[in-house]
Amino acid sequence: MTWRQFRTQAIVGALALAAAAIYLLVLGLNIHADYDGSLAACIAKGCAPGLVSGFEDKYSTVVMLTDLALMAVPGLLGAFWGAPLIGGELASGTHRLAWQQSVTRTRWLTVKLLVVGLTAVIGTGLLDLLMAWGVHQHDTVKAARFSSLVFGARGIVPFSYAAFAFTLGAATGLLLRRPIAATGLTLAVFAAVQFVVPTALRSNYLPPRTADIRLDTTTLSHADGIVLSGSSLMIGGISLPDAWVVSAGHAVDPAGQPPNTEKLNNCLAPGQFDRTVDCLAEQDLHVTATYQPNTRYWPFQLIEAALYTAMAAALSGFCFFWIRRRTT
Fold first, then answer.
1. Which 8-state DSSP code applies to residue 200?
2. Environment class of residue 37 by beta-carbon count within 10 Å: exposed (0-12), middle (13-18) or buried (19+)?
3. What are phi and psi of 226, to 5 degrees?
4. How far is CA 213 from CA 97, 109, 230, 252, in A?
5. Which of 4, 254, 277, 289 could form a disulfide with 220 if both were Cys (CB 3.0 to 4.6 A apart)?
6. pLDDT tens per residue across span 230-286
7. Which residues touch 284 (CB under 8 Å, ≥6 apart)?
8. How far apart are CA 253 and CA 263, in angstroms?
């Protein structure tokens, strides 16, 4: 009965999965071919900067948009598969027919959550694996595994996102008994959680390390921005090799004091970035940065997957509690 009720959604989902798989396959083959033709022979000993930046720029937009689409998949499955799963039956009253037979409420709910939930998790996982294969070379060259989009669309966390989104939808439908309202609320809550976790929690899964970074010409030339406010100098986009820089403080001189304001003002030349960089580099300024080494990528993946899995388990437990104690 669960399969018969779900088969239309399953067929639509299978067609969407097939279309997405074809797109990811074509994208992956193109990236692999370009990498093999332009960077594979020189990447070990160092390629010309133009080759590397050209390869990154060619695929950066399409990879970013694809990552955004994949990040939305768990939320959509939770909203359109999870929310109507129980809420739709409660709204139409068809649950009473099942409960009057020999099937218990617990068994009824267990079958629904397992059949549809596992389908959602497996479908999301297949897309995740195809994406990881297709853009592997691009991710390696760009070296930004901890960026919000890349981290959330690779590894094992998409499986846990799907489990959480689906159980969130099921629990919301159970509470509201209105599939349309539950769909909207599921999307809103999932989006809020997906914003809070990367911005407020992810960088603190393990205690960050600190490093003193000298603002030489190389560091300054790769910065995103230089902001001067009085004697306070902030450099955006500070980077460390093989690390995720979480934050960077104000620039200080070798004695740990704020830099001389007059010298800073003399360095800032609008429209002459190279001159500004050279001038600031001569002052031997430093910043203290907090960072997470890239060796923590998989521990962070495991921690975040465990967090979302625990939330999914809690929501599933709530569904069983509510349907046994409160639903009539």
1. I
2. exposed
3. -125, 120
4. 68, 56, 22, 11
5. 277
6. 667 777 778 787 888 888 878 888 778 887 777 777 777 666 777 777 887 888 888
7. 214, 253, 254
8. 12
